TrEMBL record:
<comment type="subunit">
    <text>Heterodimer of SAE1 and UBA2/SAE2. The heterodimer corresponds to the two domains that are encoded on a single polypeptide chain in ubiquitin-activating enzyme E1. Interacts with UBE2I.</text>
</comment>
<dbReference type="GO" id="GO:0019948">
    <property type="term" value="F:SUMO activating enzyme activity"/>
</dbReference>
<dbReference type="InterPro" id="IPR035985">
    <property type="entry name" value="Ubiquitin-activating_enz"/>
</dbReference>
<dbReference type="GO" id="GO:0031510">
    <property type="term" value="C:SUMO activating enzyme complex"/>
</dbReference>
<dbReference type="GO" id="GO:0005524">
    <property type="term" value="F:ATP binding"/>
</dbReference>
<feature type="binding site">
    <location>
        <position position="74"/>
    </location>
    <ligand>
        <name>ATP</name>
    </ligand>
</feature>
<feature type="compositionally biased region" description="Low complexity">
    <location>
        <begin position="592"/>
        <end position="609"/>
    </location>
</feature>
<dbReference type="InterPro" id="IPR032426">
    <property type="entry name" value="UBA2_C"/>
</dbReference>
<keyword id="KW-0808">Transferase</keyword>
<feature type="domain" description="Ubiquitin/SUMO-activating enzyme ubiquitin-like">
    <location>
        <begin position="448"/>
        <end position="531"/>
    </location>
</feature>
<dbReference type="InterPro" id="IPR030661">
    <property type="entry name" value="Uba2"/>
</dbReference>
<keyword id="KW-0547">Nucleotide-binding</keyword>
<dbReference type="GO" id="GO:0005737">
    <property type="term" value="C:cytoplasm"/>
</dbReference>
<feature type="binding site">
    <location>
        <position position="160"/>
    </location>
    <ligand>
        <name>Zn(2+)</name>
    </ligand>
</feature>
<dbReference type="InterPro" id="IPR000594">
    <property type="entry name" value="ThiF_NAD_FAD-bd"/>
</dbReference>
<dbReference type="Pfam" id="PF00899">
    <property type="entry name" value="ThiF"/>
</dbReference>
<dbReference type="InterPro" id="IPR045886">
    <property type="entry name" value="ThiF/MoeB/HesA"/>
</dbReference>
Length: 644
């Protein structure tokens, strides 16, 4: 191993490599490469954590895993395979999520360095917070296709992962999904929601029935649209969708007619919606056979590539419902299916429903392959990008161990050389912390613009604090009064769950103190009431209260990257006047010295091996909902910052 061979590294680094304890979070595409690099570099004490098991689709690039490992823990198998390179290394593997309470601040404090090799924002945010609290340097990395990025996060010296707002997660307003879809993706999202309503973890926000509370439908929704059926929230849930489907024995014809005929007629009766839109055409099961088209193709290639007709989609729909009903029936009571694009019937179901709904709403239908990419938000994973990225991560690790933080400038990998002929573009300098960051600032605070009349305490906890602000178990008190609104102790404040915020005096101007014990994170939240318009979310989080001031006070526009991440004004753009060589530039214009550890360990920018494209069925298991959402909306621009 390199550190054990005299002369490869300078002696002080050699010693640090041998004596440092390193945590690798994630044993996927980048994680496998990092672990191999660490072991071959001579690290002696490594811990690795991954919550997932090995999928056959990982094998093309996660080279520590082989066919016989499919279904086994990624962390454990990665450990075993890495030990085969060097059985003398101490590697501890955890088959677990890093976001559980088992891995608190004291766990993180054991390590000299943490290396993230994750694929979702929620876990990244969490590790970011714990490393800040534990004051352990974190090297964050990610790839998206041919693009990659490595950055150092060090408390007080660099930006943290949450210093700059990330591109908003691609989500769609409920009434567009439920009432007025206009793009294929709207139908795909609706179909995934339907899957959950029938077989998955049902979620009130994922209702698929017509929404009579749609402000655009106006008063008419109440008059002519069978308002008697609507519940107080305006949803047509005469009976819970799953209960109803179970009562009718998951009969495909009945389900089809309810979703695609009755509900569509209901929507048609909300005539305000169709004043400036093409109205939908309800479809009836009986009428389909007359279409006389061939049965759905059984050949897999054809099945994936062909754009199925309404009749063909209905056939696929029927078959999928039958298979999913059987799978659901075999689960223990209270358990549910999890949508997975690699599960044939789960995917068939979504593709068929999306296409049937698209046809009804005069939206172009898509092939199963296209729907799968959109539903799974797939960006191809490229083995070479992962390998190069992991190489840069470990080079940064060496610098961190040497205390050379200023040399750990963020590095961006691109598909094509830029004007300076660089494939690896480093920032000019470290990006300093954003003093207004709602995570790493001395006194983190945000302004929450929220519909205090309609948003409930439960929504404040689940949708805002946990989902949007990425907390694990928040405790919330009203500042000044000390009233406990939300407690992380189970059941303690359940009586508040369904209360609207204003009922608890959480109104315009109110200040909340939020404390997440697991993350050791305290946040001050100032409430600003808002009345959302149609298609507008019921809340916005504004990290910088200055931006609420009138426009004339607005400061100069901040530079932003192509994915919408705006950097603080102190941030630096990738160096424009660096050396022309296709290598990582150490300082402006300075190349790694031949024979230095960087030169030895560094990836050669122009030596990309054959690129393996991710095949179409490579997304990880769907237990990782947040991951799927995260990838949505990311573009493939050369300037890309984020991250697979
Ligand atoms: N909270 C978490 N705790 C531990 N490991 C996590 C957590 N969230 C994600 N991971 C792991 O991070 C790894 C990221 O690797 P990668 O991006 O290659 O994903 P993948 O699921 O292996 O591949 P793909 O998504 O491309 O099919 C995965 O193995 C995933 O299980
Ligand atoms: Zn920050």
């Amino acid at each position: 191993m390199a550190a054990q061979i005299a002369g490869v590294f300078e002696p002080s680094l050699q010693e640090k490599i041998s004596n440092s304890k390193i945590l690798v979070v994630g044993a996927g595409g980048i994680g496998c490469e990092i672990l191999k690099n660490l072991v071959l570099s001579g690290f002696q004490d490594i811990e690795i954590i991954d919550l997932d098991t090995i999928d056959v689709s990982n094998l093309n690039r996660q080279f520590l895993f082989h066919k016989e490992h499919v279904g086994k823990s990624k962390a454990n198998v990665a450990r075993e395979s890495a030990l085969s390179f060097n059985p003398n290394v101490k590697i501890k593997a955890y088959h677990d999520s890093i976001t559980t309470t088992n891995y608190g601040v004291s766990f993180f404090q054991q390590f000299q360095l943490v290396l993230n090799a994750l694929d979702n924002r929620a876990a990244r945010n969490h590790v970011n917070r714990l490393c800040l609290t534990a004051d352990v340097p974190l090297i964050e990395s990610g790839t998206a296709g041919y693009n990659g990025q490595v950055e150092l996060i060090k408390r007080g010296q660099t930006q943290c992962y949450e210093c700059t707002p990330k591109a908003a997660q691609k989500s769609f307003p409920g009434c567009t999904i439920r009432n007025t879809p206009s793009e294929p993706i709207h139908c795909i999202v609706w179909a995934k929601h339907l899957f959950n309503q029938l077989f998955g973890e049902s979620n009130e926000d994922e209702d698929v029935s017509p929404d009579t509370a749609d402000p655009e439908a106006g008063a008419e929704a109440g008059e002519s649209a069978l308002a008697a059926d609507a519940n107080e929230k305006g949803n047509v849930d005469r009976v819970n969708t799953r209960t109803w489907a179970a009562q009718c024995g998951y009969d495909p014809e009945k389900i089809f007619n309810k979703l695609f005929y009755d509900d569509i007629n209901y929507l048609l009766s909300m005539s305000n919606l169709w004043k400036s839109r093409t109205p939908p055409n309800p479809a009836k099961w009986d009428a389909l056979e007359e279409d006389g088209e061939a049965a759905a193709p059984t050949d897999t290639v054809l099945r994936d590539q062909k754009v199925l007709s309404l009749t063909e989609s209905a056939k696929v729909f029927g078959d999928a419902i039958g298979a999913l009903k059987d799978a659901f029936g075999k689960l223990p009571d209270g358990d549910h299916l999890v949508w997975d694009k690699d599960d044939k019937y789960a995917m068939d179901f979504v593709a068929a429903c999306a296409n049937i709904r698209a046809q009804i709403f005069n939206i172009p239908r898509k092939s199963r392959f296209e729907i799968k990419s959109m539903a799974g938000n797939i960006i191809p994973a490229i083995a070479t990008t992962n390998a190069i990225t992991a190489g840069v991560v470990v080079m940064h690790a060496f610098r961190v161990l040497k205390g050379e933080f200023e040399k750990c400038k963020s590095v961006y990998m691109r598909l094509r050389p830029n004007a300076r002929n660089q494939l690896f573009v480093p920032d000019r300098a470290l990006n300093p912390p954003n003093p207004k960051c709602y995570v790493c600032a001395a006194k983190p605070e945000v302004t929450l613009k929220v519909d205090t009349k309609n948003v409930t305490v439960k929504e404040l906890r689940d949708d805002i604090l946990i989902k949007a602000l990425n907390m694990i178990g928040p405790d919330v008190t009203i500042d000044g009064k000390g009233t406990i609104v939300i407690s992380s102790e189970e059941g303690e404040t359940d009586c508040n769950n369904d209360k609207k915020l204003e009922e608890l005096q959480i109104v315009d101007g109110c200040i909340l103190k939020v404390d997440d014990f697991v993350q050791n994170y305290e946040l001050t939240v100032t409430i600003v009431h808002k009345d959302p318009a149609r298609d507008e979310p019921s809340f916005d989080i504004v990290a910088d209260p200055e931006s609420l001031k009138p426009k004339e006070d607005e400061p100069e526009a901040q530079p932003s990257t192509s994915n919408g991440n705006s950097k603080p004004s102190t941030s630096t753009a990738p160096a424009a006047d660096d050396d022309d060589d296709m290598c990582i530039v150490e300082e402006d214009g300075e190349k790694p010295a031949a024979g230095s550890d960087e030169a030895e360990a560094g990836p050669s920018g122009s030596s990309s091996g054959p690129e393996k494209r991710k095949n179409d069925d490579t997304e990880g298991p769907s237990t990782k909902k947040a991951r799927v959402e995260e990838k949505a909306g990311e573009d493939d621009d050369d300037d890309l910052i984020v991250i697979n």
